[in-house]
Amino acid sequence: MDARLNFFATRTGTKVIKSLMTLGKDLKDMPLPAATQELVSLRVSQINGCAVCIDMHTKEAAAAGETALRMNLVAAWREAAVFTEAERAALALAEEGTRVADGAGGVADKVWAKAAEHYDEEQLAALVTLISFMNMANRANIITRQPAGDYVAGQFH
């Protein structure tokens, strides 16, 4: 599959992609556990069907020491006993924050409250930003049909 658009072939695309890469790096440096960041990024990308982001985040998670078992079970995290309560709260927030069109009320108060039990304000800010960022990245990649499979962990750092 060929991409519909090479972002780096235009001034606009290059400028935006460079900004997004900077934001992505800034997110990695925020006070949210690396495992949580990768699991959330992976789950959002699974929901949206973004193959290039699934490729990227499974490889980044593996490079950071995440197990294949947990990565394989993130799509069914509710039934899997391998996630902490904090990770479950983050995954629930990620799902509701991604599926806003599916739930007329957006993110439920109980989902937010559960996340707030496990994460402080700084971490919640990072989590909300990460979820929003991943949804935007997924959509840009899906619209332009970016191909998956050749990502190398650390390629954008």
Automatic annotation (TrEMBL):
Source domain of life: Bacteria
A Pfam family that the UniProt record links to this protein: CMD
Carboxymuconolactone decarboxylase-like domain sequence ranges: 22-96
Protein's name in the database: Carboxymuconolactone decarboxylase family protein
Organism whose genome encodes this protein: Kitasatospora misakiensis
